[in-house]
Amino acid sequence: MRLLVAPSAVVAGALLLAGCGSGSGGQDSGGKAELSVRAAYIPQPVSDTMAAGFLTIVNEGGTKDELTSVTSAAAGSVTLHETVGSSMEEVTSLDVPAHGQLVFKSGGNHLMFEKLKSKPVQGETVTVELHFAASDPVKVEIPVKSAVYNPKTGH
After folding, report:
1. What is the pLDDT of residues 114-152, one digit of tens each?
2. Element containing residue 130 per DSSP (H, E)
3. Pairing of strands 138-145, 35-43
4. Could you write out the three-class secondary structure of 98-154?
């Protein structure tokens, strides 16, 4: 499914979603994915029903993996999106390369929290669980930052 995003929606989305992610696993002999999460955050959303999330999934292992879904009690659903140019596309999985990372950042890959149970407020945290094709799930406490937060990492 491909959605065209109006310029105002892009700006609003950029303010809502800010984060980086990295992670992928490649098949090296005898290795396995070793996944961790860094630079996670959710900009305080302007919407009562949607928010964006950013993070970096790091894979220090010798085997690639795939992020296949994200769940959170804070939202009815959390979907994975890629952004190319001015269009945003929902995807079913994203690769986390071996010895690499999967980055979720404003203007790029991002998480969309839809049907929020309550609007996240700066200073709170949102718990998510990342699900992978081969690795065990990873639970992450994502801090809610100001709507205009700009991480030092550029993600």
Report:
1. 999 999 999 999 999 999 999 999 999 999 999 999 887
2. strand 125-132
3. parallel
4. CCEEEEECCCCCEEEEEEECCCCCCCCEEEEEEEECCCCCEEEEEEEECCCCCCCCC
Distance CA 135, CA 120 (A): 29
Kindly report the pTM of this predicted structure.
0.78
Chain centroid, CA 18 distance in Å: 9
CA distance 69 to 21: 14
Provide the pLDDT for residue 31.
Answer: 78
Q: Decide if 41 contacts 18 (C-beta within 8 A).
A: yes
Q: Tell me: the pLDDT tens digits for 8-20? A: 333 333 333 333 3
Alpha-carbon distance of 31 to 43, in angstroms, equals 36
CB atoms inside a 10 Å sphere around CB 129: 14
